[in-house]
Design brief:
mainly alpha
Length: 144
Protein backbone atom coordinates (compact mmCIF):
# COMPACT_ATOMS: atom_id res chain seq x y z
CA UNK A 1 0.00 0.00 0.00
CA UNK A 2 2.79 2.41 0.87
CA UNK A 3 4.45 1.88 -2.49
CA UNK A 4 1.17 2.14 -4.41
CA UNK A 5 -0.26 5.28 -2.76
CA UNK A 6 2.86 7.46 -2.70
CA UNK A 7 3.30 7.87 -6.48
CA UNK A 8 0.17 10.04 -6.82
CA UNK A 9 1.64 13.04 -4.99
CA UNK A 10 5.00 12.27 -6.61
CA UNK A 11 3.45 12.44 -10.05
CA UNK A 12 1.68 15.69 -9.17
CA UNK A 13 4.87 17.23 -7.77
CA UNK A 14 7.17 16.21 -10.61
CA UNK A 15 4.67 16.83 -13.41
CA UNK A 16 5.45 20.49 -13.69
CA UNK A 17 9.12 20.30 -12.75
CA UNK A 18 10.35 20.36 -16.37
CA UNK A 19 8.51 23.66 -16.86
CA UNK A 20 9.80 25.15 -13.59
CA UNK A 21 13.37 23.86 -13.95
CA UNK A 22 15.65 23.24 -16.87
CA UNK A 23 14.71 19.86 -18.31
CA UNK A 24 18.11 18.47 -17.32
CA UNK A 25 17.60 19.50 -13.71
CA UNK A 26 14.48 17.36 -13.19
CA UNK A 27 16.18 13.96 -13.43
CA UNK A 28 19.21 15.31 -11.60
CA UNK A 29 16.98 16.22 -8.64
CA UNK A 30 14.83 13.08 -8.73
CA UNK A 31 17.39 10.33 -9.40
CA UNK A 32 19.55 10.71 -6.31
CA UNK A 33 16.51 11.02 -4.09
CA UNK A 34 14.99 7.86 -5.52
CA UNK A 35 18.11 5.85 -4.85
CA UNK A 36 19.04 7.49 -1.56
CA UNK A 37 16.55 5.68 0.60
CA UNK A 38 18.09 2.26 -0.15
CA UNK A 39 21.12 2.96 2.06
CA UNK A 40 19.30 3.37 5.39
CA UNK A 41 17.25 0.23 4.65
CA UNK A 42 20.36 -1.95 4.84
CA UNK A 43 20.28 -4.02 7.98
CA UNK A 44 17.00 -2.73 9.41
CA UNK A 45 14.16 -4.97 10.52
CA UNK A 46 11.73 -2.22 11.55
CA UNK A 47 8.58 -2.66 9.47
CA UNK A 48 7.38 0.93 9.97
CA UNK A 49 10.71 2.32 8.76
CA UNK A 50 10.62 0.04 5.71
CA UNK A 51 7.10 1.23 4.85
CA UNK A 52 8.17 4.87 5.06
CA UNK A 53 11.25 4.12 2.94
CA UNK A 54 9.04 2.36 0.36
CA UNK A 55 6.73 5.39 0.20
CA UNK A 56 9.66 7.78 -0.26
CA UNK A 57 11.10 5.56 -2.98
CA UNK A 58 7.75 5.36 -4.78
CA UNK A 59 7.24 9.12 -4.57
CA UNK A 60 10.46 9.79 -6.46
CA UNK A 61 11.06 6.71 -8.60
CA UNK A 62 7.49 6.38 -9.90
CA UNK A 63 6.92 10.13 -9.93
CA UNK A 64 9.62 10.48 -12.56
CA UNK A 65 7.36 8.92 -15.19
CA UNK A 66 5.57 12.27 -15.46
CA UNK A 67 8.60 14.27 -16.55
CA UNK A 68 9.75 11.41 -18.77
CA UNK A 69 6.59 11.68 -20.84
CA UNK A 70 6.88 15.47 -21.13
CA UNK A 71 10.62 15.73 -21.73
CA UNK A 72 11.45 12.70 -23.87
CA UNK A 73 9.25 13.54 -26.88
CA UNK A 74 11.19 16.79 -27.24
CA UNK A 75 14.43 14.85 -27.78
CA UNK A 76 13.26 13.07 -30.95
CA UNK A 77 12.15 14.35 -34.37
CA UNK A 78 8.50 13.75 -35.27
CA UNK A 79 9.14 10.76 -37.53
CA UNK A 80 10.71 8.77 -34.70
CA UNK A 81 9.18 10.35 -31.61
CA UNK A 82 6.81 7.49 -30.70
CA UNK A 83 9.52 4.89 -31.26
CA UNK A 84 12.07 6.77 -29.16
CA UNK A 85 9.71 7.32 -26.24
CA UNK A 86 8.46 3.72 -26.36
CA UNK A 87 12.04 2.45 -26.38
CA UNK A 88 13.04 4.56 -23.37
CA UNK A 89 9.95 3.51 -21.40
CA UNK A 90 10.10 -0.18 -22.28
CA UNK A 91 13.79 -1.07 -22.72
CA UNK A 92 14.35 -1.21 -18.94
CA UNK A 93 11.60 -3.82 -18.70
CA UNK A 94 13.63 -6.15 -20.90
CA UNK A 95 16.44 -5.87 -18.35
CA UNK A 96 14.20 -5.87 -15.27
CA UNK A 97 12.75 -9.29 -16.06
CA UNK A 98 16.04 -10.70 -14.82
CA UNK A 99 15.44 -9.27 -11.32
CA UNK A 100 13.11 -11.99 -10.02
CA UNK A 101 15.27 -14.65 -11.63
CA UNK A 102 18.51 -13.57 -9.97
CA UNK A 103 17.16 -11.93 -6.79
CA UNK A 104 18.00 -14.91 -4.61
CA UNK A 105 21.56 -15.04 -5.91
CA UNK A 106 22.02 -11.28 -5.42
CA UNK A 107 20.71 -11.43 -1.85
CA UNK A 108 23.01 -14.35 -1.05
CA UNK A 109 26.05 -12.80 -2.74
CA UNK A 110 25.67 -9.36 -1.14
CA UNK A 111 24.92 -10.67 2.35
CA UNK A 112 21.26 -9.80 2.75
CA UNK A 113 18.31 -8.01 1.22
CA UNK A 114 19.34 -4.53 2.36
CA UNK A 115 22.81 -4.76 0.82
CA UNK A 116 21.44 -6.19 -2.43
CA UNK A 117 18.81 -3.42 -2.63
CA UNK A 118 21.48 -0.78 -2.08
CA UNK A 119 23.65 -2.16 -4.88
CA UNK A 120 20.71 -2.49 -7.30
CA UNK A 121 19.48 1.04 -6.45
CA UNK A 122 22.84 2.44 -7.53
CA UNK A 123 21.53 2.33 -11.12
CA UNK A 124 20.13 5.80 -10.41
CA UNK A 125 23.70 7.08 -10.47
CA UNK A 126 23.79 6.26 -14.19
CA UNK A 127 20.73 8.45 -14.78
CA UNK A 128 22.26 11.22 -12.71
CA UNK A 129 25.42 11.15 -14.82
CA UNK A 130 23.61 10.86 -18.17
CA UNK A 131 20.99 13.61 -17.73
CA UNK A 132 23.33 16.62 -18.07
CA UNK A 133 24.63 15.19 -21.36
CA UNK A 134 21.21 15.40 -23.01
CA UNK A 135 20.30 18.56 -24.91
CA UNK A 136 18.34 21.33 -23.20
CA UNK A 137 14.86 21.52 -24.73
CA UNK A 138 13.34 24.42 -22.82
CA UNK A 139 12.09 27.07 -25.22
CA UNK A 140 13.26 25.10 -28.26
CA UNK A 141 10.55 24.23 -30.84
CA UNK A 142 9.92 20.57 -31.54
CA UNK A 143 11.93 19.14 -34.42
CA UNK A 144 9.81 17.94 -37.33
Amino acid sequence: MAYNLAPSPGISATGSSPTRLDADASPCCISPQAGADAGPVSGTHDLHFLLVAAAINAFFSLGQYTWMSTWLPELYPTRMRATGVAFVFNAPRFIAFLGPLIAGALIADFGGYGNAATIVASIYILGLLAAPLLPETRGVPLRS
